Amino acid sequence: SEPPPGPNGTITRMGLVGYVCETALPANRISITACAAVVTAPLAGSPLLYWLFSFVCHQRPERSLWLAGLPLAVCARCSGIYFGALLGLLMIFPSRRNILLFAFALMGLDWLTETAGLRPTWTEWRFASGLLVGMACAPVVREAAREVWQECPSR
Questions:
Q1: Quick one: DSSP state of residue 4?
Q2: Distance between CA atoms of 66 and 73, rounded to whole angstroms?
Q3: Cα(33)–Cα(41) distance, rounded to whole angstroms?
Q4: Nearest-CA neighbor of 146 among 94, 103, 98?
Q5: What digits encode the pLDDT tens for the residues 14-37?
Q6: Is the CA virtual torsion 134, 135, 137, 139 positive or negative?
């Protein structure tokens, strides 16, 4: 689904803003909150945030990005997924299954070659593969959020 066209068939700025607000705002809030929490954990030295993220990530310091002398609340790959999802939600492009499959295949190749000992851990590559998966998943999440929003009885 794309933003509604304006009177002359082009997408107007207000049409685009309305589209983003209606279809992606709930997902954007969740994504922004998750990204803020990932970065806040080392800045605030928050054991609570590290503990909360421990349920979704192994948090191995050698596989993490660092900020203010501490690792982020999740590993580099998970950080990439969170920040990629945020970028993907903010960008307007349609959901494409082949892009999603390609991103997951790249992440799987990254995991497989590292796990098999064919190469050392490359934190930057882990972040990049997560970023691609997050960006590719975002349109799917946006479309699902739009469908749920349209089915709300209050609308």
A1: P
A2: 9
A3: 12
A4: 94
A5: 444 455 555 556 667 778 888 889
A6: positive
Instruction: State the pTM of this model.
Output: 0.76
State the chain's maximal CA–CA distance in angstroms.
58
Structure tokens at 9: 């068939």
- Spatial separation of the C-alpha atoms in residues 30 and 33, rounded to whole Å: 5
Give long-range contacts, CB 8 A cutoff, 24+ apart: 20-29.
20/92, 22/146, 22/149, 23/142, 23/143, 23/145, 23/146, 23/149, 24/89, 24/90, 24/142, 24/145, 24/146, 26/145, 26/149, 27/89, 27/138, 27/141, 27/142, 27/145, 28/86, 28/89, 28/90
Give pLDDT, residue 26: 64
Let me know the angle formed at the C-alpha of 74 by 31 and 82, rounded to the nearest 5 degrees: 25
Gap between the Cα atoms of 46 and 90, Å rounded:
28
The CA distances from residue 88 to 24, 41, 46, 82, 133, in Å, are 10, 23, 28, 10, 10
CA distances for 16 relative to 9, 21, 50, 83, 140, angstroms: 13, 9, 37, 22, 18
Half-sphere exposure of 110 (CA within 13 A, CB side): 22
pLDDT band at 98; cut points 50, 70, 90: confident
